[in-house]
Task: structure prediction
Amino acid sequence: MKLYFAPGACSLSPHIALLEGGLKADYEQVDLKAKTLKSGGDYREINPKGAVPALKTDEGDVLTEGPAIVQYIADLAPGSELAPKAGTKERYKLMEWLNFISTELHKMFSPLFRPNTPDDYKPIAKENLATKFAYVDEKLAKTQYLMGDHFTVADAYLYVMLRWAQALKLDMSKFGNLKTYFERVGARPKVQEALKAEGLS
Result:
């Protein structure tokens, strides 16, 4: 397998999942602005969408979109408990979290990263994010991880969103559960390994 990634981007989520699952993979860095590979070549030949992550499977297929990729990874490492078994009610709960993070958090960050976003809209985007983070903070009041006591691929994805919140200096001071959670996930050895590999630690 090969994971196409950009340091600190949402591709950090499948990077963490691969390491947590004990799976062997190659890693290829992408320049998202130029749409080029670090080794040379046009990244759009791999993923015409031009975004990361993309995962080339051992069979030569290319998967895109983080929530799909991390579930594929989890299913390759069933003993890791990175995802409940396919078809179970718990698996649909995991998919619910992945969709929430993708649509209600990930995409809401987009205006804050775009240079052409009007300055007067940025406080609105931050307020919208705070509302969504408040929901997650409440859900984490009684559990260590999103799905209970076990780390899953949804946690890897949420962790990346919390890193973005930190990088953008969002006010997260009222979210005590998320603060503890962020520290807990960040302390995991495989998370530290992924951060180091991407030059982020």
